[in-house]
Write a structure and sequence with these properties.
mainly beta, four-stranded antiparallel sheet, 4 strands, about 0% helix
């Protein structure tokens, strides 16, 4: 397959990362203090926009993740 014919896969399963044409790539986090959902893009300060808390947790993915144990 040539490089020009390649079509990048869509992120249909990844709901925590969204693409907005005005802001670029944003990722959704949850504040560790007030549990608000915070959207951050690359270069934004890591801080809750509601309470100012600096501990944010990445939201868990909705797709199934399976590991093979021995």
């Amino acid at each position: 397959m040539s490089r020009e014919a390649y079509v990048a896969p869509t992120s249909a399963f990844n709901t925590s990362t969204t693409v907005d044409t005005t802001q670029g790539l944003t990722t959704q986090y949850i504040c560790g203090d007030c549990n608000q959902k915070v959207l951050l893009k690359q270069g934004d300060p890591i801080r809750c926009k509601e309470c100012g808390h600096r501990i944010l947790y990445k939201e868990r993915t909705k797709r199934m993740v399976q590991f093979e144990a021995r």
